[in-house]
User: Fold this.
Amino acid sequence: MLDYLLFFIPAAFLVISVLIAIKSFEKGKSPKRTVLTQICSFCAVFAFCAICPIVTHAAEVAPEAVAAASDATGLGYIAAGICTGLSCIGGGIAVGGSAPAAIGATSEDPKNFGKSIIFVALGEGCALYGMLISIMIISSLG
Assistant:
């Protein structure tokens, strides 16, 4: 029972922090402050999960599965998550900068659409490459 309680504490904390961030944004707080609130709440949940490792093992697992699992498998999953996350953040930054410029160039001269859409596609390609690398990492773990 304690395992399930420790599992729901971080999840409840994240849900509550999202609701608080939404309410503070609706009240007129700055978007930077709401993003900072979300980052701090994520760090708090990460610290809680690092301090209480039982949170990561909330479900009962067969003993032979625990013996077969190793640190390399866990680090592989972390690497795949970081690879996907960082490539998607980079792709979002690239598309966020190039898409408005492409729209502006197309509105001035419709002939520029083909040239400008290439830059948007290159930004999305970064995210796809990161996802492919993480799929390769996960497939090599099994």
